[in-house]
Amino acid sequence: MVADDSVLLREGVVRLLEEWGFDVVGQAGDADDLLRKVNAHKPDVAVVDIRMPPTNTDDGLRAALRIRSEHPDTSVLVLSQYVEEGYALELVGDAAGGVGYLLKDRVADVERFIDAVKRVAEGGSALDPEVVSQLVGRARREDPLEQLTPREREVLELMAEGRSNTAIAAQMVVTERAVEKHVTSIFGKLGLPPAPQDHRRVLAVLTFLRA
Amino acid sequence: MTSLRRALWALAVVGFGMGLAVLALMVTSDSLDTPGVWAAGTLLAGWGFIGVGLYAWGRRPDNGVGMLMAATGFAWLVGAAGFSDLALVFTLSQVLGAVFFAVVIHLLLAFPSGRLQSLAERRIVAAAYLLTTVCFLPFWLFADPKALDCDDCPDNLLLIDSKESLVTTASAILNGIGAVLVLCVLFVMVRRWRRASAAQRRFLVPVYSAGVAVLLLLIVLVSAQAGGVESKALDVLWVASMVPFALVPYLFLYTLVRTRMIQSGAVGELMARLGETPQRGELRDALARALGDSTVELVYWLPEDQRFVDARGHIVGLPSLSSGRAVTKVERDGECVAAIVYDAILQDEQPGYVDAVGAAASLALENERLDAELRSKVEELRASRERMLSIGLEERRRLERDLHDGAQQRLVSMALNMRLARARLRDDPNGAERLLDGAGDELEAALGELRELARGIHPAVLSDRGLDTALETLARRAPVPVELHRLPEERLPEAVELAAYFVVAEALTNVAKYALATHATVDVQRLNGKLVVRVADDGVGGANPEVGTGLRGLADRLAVIEGRLEIDSEPGKGTTITAKIPCA
To answer: A198 and A96 in contact (C-beta within 8 Å)?
Structure first.
């Protein structure tokens, strides 16, 4: 399911998804249309533009929140024109599974976009690196993040984006074993309880970052 | 009775006694043909100067005119004692009596403030005193009155050796110097007259006219003496110059009394006039008439801005003390309402009178103050609108520049890279890939720049979610830790939210740029129909809205919606920016 009021972009995303083997069951041009069609088709994942009619403000985000609460089996990936980490946090709420918030530009980076859609559809999470870096980079009075090594910081950011250890290892060109060690060290330094599942891990990290 | 008063009464008694003594001396004098006429004229002038001088002295101890007038009277009587037949009195009078001329010059130049105003004036007066004392004394060591055509005169007790030719020459030289001094005095008086305002002239007329008459006759007298005119004619000239001189104190007294009468009448008239609710500008005219000063200006106090404006609402400064203008502030219920700016002469002449006039007009002044305040607001709005316009234009120029230098350049370069890549696609696939990678980077950068640009124009989150969410974002992005205190949860009018947002954005930008702060706090609350936005940091302080466009532009943005910006930024004590935005 793809919802975007810009036909051009919507068609583009649909073509992209179909080309990569997704089955697009419906398209919506506004928030009400989206909710109706999600209700009807019960898709695995909805890719939703944040700015849509009727009010052209954050209708897409609010529709996404409703989908999350009313259709827990449908994952939601929200696309936004701008980085608004507040929105991302709101969207994630208290469950980081089956949810994503990406800058619209990322669509152009096809492989990563598709990867994110897949991850979200499978119940994982995908947060835009810009959002994560805003959260990590914010000024804090006594910043526990300063205890992290640059390497660990990188791992933290990738974790927050919703990547799995395998993906992180591939991105950083290290072994999965090394990533696991980093993760354990990060959780230790930040005083977080260990979380085996990827999306729980995301939530734990986000909860820490937003505090 | 104060000690001053006692002293003045004592002086009055002395003066009276001296007058009687002079009278006795003159009536018994051998050197006078008509002693009665001479004595009457002498006493009229002497007692007049002493009496009026002591009166003025008592009323205005801080103004030297009274003292100088009394001194003139005493010096005059001392000089008149020269008619005595007693050798001792005659000698003393001749030696001391010349000081009289210096005192008169001093009086004329110091009138009416009692102070000599320029170095030139002080030099003239000093020269006059020098001439009539130090230079005159040796003269009398050689002058024998009998040898100088005064057969009836008694002996000069100081006489060492009668040297007629020397004395005649010295006399001519001293008279010449005296004449030059008198001319200088006349020159100063004429110049002062020409520069005087109408109010000043009113005070100057009687004394100046008499003073000029005396000085002119004095010159004629001196030149006649030098020209060898016979003594009968000299006597006539002497009497002729005595008449205006004797009139001076009485004219002065007349001015004082008349001013008082006019003034008490004028306050009454002013009150009546103000009762008829004056039109704009009429109040000034009424006050000008009451004060007898056509140069009166009214300025009004704006307590909010802590400054004065004129009736048209333009900001004005108060004149300095040395400008010849005086300022009297008018208060009402302990609050400054307005200030009357007028000729400083009025203050010299009648201290307290302007206060009385101001108090009488305070209600009317308060009304005009409100009017001026309104005009000042309109004026401020007009100026602010102009600034907004130019800020708007400047922002558009900046946007154009940013778009042109940023995103557009990147897109052009990207297009170029893609065409190059296309051309190399077959022959050099690796090169084409690198070019496409570059194009992708350019694209990403261009998109990033466009995003930032759009946020600067209007933050979407503000209209989407309202002030609290938008401020949370601002706070998160600030380069120093920002604590958010109270934030309104409800939605506010769009213009208010936008203004509050930009206040915090600009303030936090300044914190980052200049304050060297370790943290900042943001507090927004609704208070008495206003949204009070406060951003405080613990930085170096010293922020000045007059320097740089940021804070100034912010104040203008706020002015549009009747908001006000207050900046409290003492060096070393951090900066607190408070915006108060009307928000019913």
So the answer is: no
Enclosing H/E stretch for B533: strand B530-537
* Tens digits of residue pLDDT in B137-147: 777 777 766 66
Tokens of B551: 């804070």
In angstroms, rounded to a whole number, what is the distance separating the alpha carbons of residues A9 and A26? Answer: 15
Residue B464 and residue A135: Cβ atoms within 8 Å? Answer: no
**Cβ pair B358, B271 in contact under 8 A:** no
Beta carbons of B557 and B499 less than 8 angstroms apart: yes
Chain-centre distance for alpha carbon B433: 78
Cβ within 8 Å, pair A83-B480: no
Residue B465 contacts A where some CB pair is shorter than 8 Å: yes
User: Could you tell me how far CA B165 lies from the centroid of its own chain?
Assistant: 57
The strands making up B530-537's β-sheet, listed across from edge to edge, are B482-484, B520-527, B530-537, B576-582, B564-568
Q: Note the pLDDT of residue A202.
A: 85
Distance from C-alpha of B221 to C-alpha of B172, rounded to nearest angstrom: 12
Verify that A122 and A143 share a domain, yes or no.
Answer: no
Residues of B in contact with A133 (CB under 8 A): none
Using DSSP's 3-state secondary structure scheme, residue B275 falls into helix
Decide if A47 contacts A3 (C-beta within 8 A).
Answer: yes
Q: How many other CB atoms sit within 10 Å of the CB of residue A161?
A: 25
Interface check B437 vs A, CB under 8 A? no
Question: Hey, of B418, B442, B449, B451, which one would you mutate to test binding to chain A, going by the most A CBs within 10 A of its CB?
Answer: B451
Contact state of A105 with B447 under an 8 Å Cβ cutoff = yes
* Max Cα–Cα distance, chain A, nearest Å: 50
Closest residue in B to A209 (Cα–Cα): B476
Nearest to A101 by CA among A63, A44, A159, A47: A47
pLDDT tens for A7-55 read 888 988 999 999 999 999 999 999 999 999 999 999 999 999 998 888 8
Shortest alpha-carbon distance between residue B471 and chain A (Å): 10
Average pLDDT, chain A: 88
pLDDT above 90: residue A120: yes
Give the pLDDT mean for A47-65: 90
In this prediction, residue B390 has a pLDDT band, given cuts at 50, 70 and 90, of: confident
Cα-based angle B92, B98, B101 (whole degrees, multiple of 5): 150
Instruction: Report the top-level CATH class of B3-260.
Output: mainly alpha
A82/B464 Cβ within 8 A: no
* CATH number at B378-457: 1.20.5
The 10 Å Cβ neighbour count of residue B524 is 23
CB B308 within 8 A of CB B317: yes
| Best mutation target, A138, A142, A206, to test chain B (most B CBs within 10 A) | A138
Nearest to A139 among B460, B461, B481 (CB): B481
Bond into A54 cis (ω within 30): yes
Cβ of A57 within 8 Å of Cβ of B451? The answer is no
ipTM over 0.90: no
- Does the distance separating the beta carbons of A86 and B460 come in below 8 Å? no
Question: The CATH number of the domain where A197 resides is what?
Answer: 1.10.10.10
> Scanning every residue of chain B, which has its alpha carbon at the shortest distance from the alpha carbon of A130?
B448
Contacts of A105 in chain B (CB under 8 A): 444, 447-448
Q: Are A51 and B477 a contacting pair at CB < 8 A? A: no
**Same domain, yes or no: A144 and A123:** no
Tokens of A3: 């919802």
What CATH number is attached to the domain comprising A77? 3.40.50.2300
Q: Which long-range contacts (CB under 8 A, 24 or more apart) does B89-97 make?
A: B89/B25, B90/B145, B90/B153, B90/B154, B90/B155, B90/B156, B91/B140, B91/B155, B91/B156, B91/B157, B91/B158, B94/B140, B94/B156, B95/B136, B95/B137, B95/B140, B95/B158
Residue-number span of the structural domain to which A203 is assigned: 139-210
